[in-house]
Amino acid sequence: MLVTAKEVLNEARKKHYAVPAFDCVEDVMVRTMLETAEQQRAPVFLMCLLPDLTGNGWAYLPGLIKAAAAHHKIPVVLHLDHAPNLDAIRQAVEAGFTSVMIDGSQLPFDDNVRLTKAAVDLAHPRGVSVEAELGHVGGADLEGSVCGENVLTDPDEVARFVEQTGVDSLAVSIGTSHGVYKSLPSLHINRLKELNHVSPVPLVLHGGSGTPEDQVQEAVRNGICKMNIYADIRIAMGRGLKTAAVTQHREDPLPQEVFGPIRDEIADVVRDKIDLLFAANRV
User: Fold this and answer.
1) Ranges of each domain in the chain
2) For this structure, is 121 an active site residue?
3) Catalytic pick from 23, 27, 52, 81?
């Protein structure tokens, strides 16, 4: 069933677990993620990135997720990830997304507030939840060509930012990075404790792929209610593709022979992340 982020994240904060949030593209990912989450009785975010929504993507991808979510009993949040501007927010609201993330994290504080408040004003009248980012989670972009620096979230800014914007959840920077790590991170758990203490809304961790499991669970114990995962899914997809390439020998392979190993690898990652975040059996 399709729900808003506000519904599932407030529940996660009360019960001290985090909801896994997976960026996804096409049926192989969507079906595998939803079926695995339902087997684990876990709520889940399925997230879309703008490069995958260009052209007909705005109809195909959210349309697929909305239709599939209606057949599942678990809470499913359809989320737009890292929208850089209000045009993307407006399109997502019109397309039926139940949650959006406006990313003004590289802007000065006051500009981030103005952009986020404008996104909230667009989304809230339609019942759509809004996530923003304060501080900046760096790392590689999707092409792996640009690597941004981390800027840790300042606890002194959190309550003021939430009050001035009306945002429903807040992505914070505590040492993770987007993409594949070149060296393992060391999360600033004491900083997270400060952020959680002063934040009126649930906290989100971006750059969850590859982060050591003990650090992830410590972050969840200290206030993280949603964790974004994409690189680990892409790595799993690559493993499955390699397996399919070496195990099928027909010139005209059946779809299950091609996609089956990919589904299996993605399902393993989804299952592991659900367990890691204490999200199993929450439905």
Assistant:
1) 5-276
2) no
3) 81
Report the sign of the C-alpha dihedral through residues 179, 180, 183, 188, in that order: positive
CATH superfamily of the domain spanning 5-276: Aldolase class I (3.20.20.70)
Range list of β-strands (E), the chain? 19-23, 44-49, 76-83, 99-102, 129-134, 139-140, 147-148, 169-172, 203-205, 224-229
Nearest by Cα to 231 from 267, 269, 204: 269
80, 119 Cβ separation under 8 angstroms: no
- Tell me the C-alpha distance between 50 and 90, whole Å: 13
Q: pLDDT (tens digit, 9 = 90+) per residue, 224-272?
A: 999 999 999 999 999 999 999 888 878 898 989 999 999 999 999 999 9
- How far the first Cα of the chain sits from its last, in Å, is 11
Strand partners, 48: 80
The pTM assigned to this predicted structure is 0.92
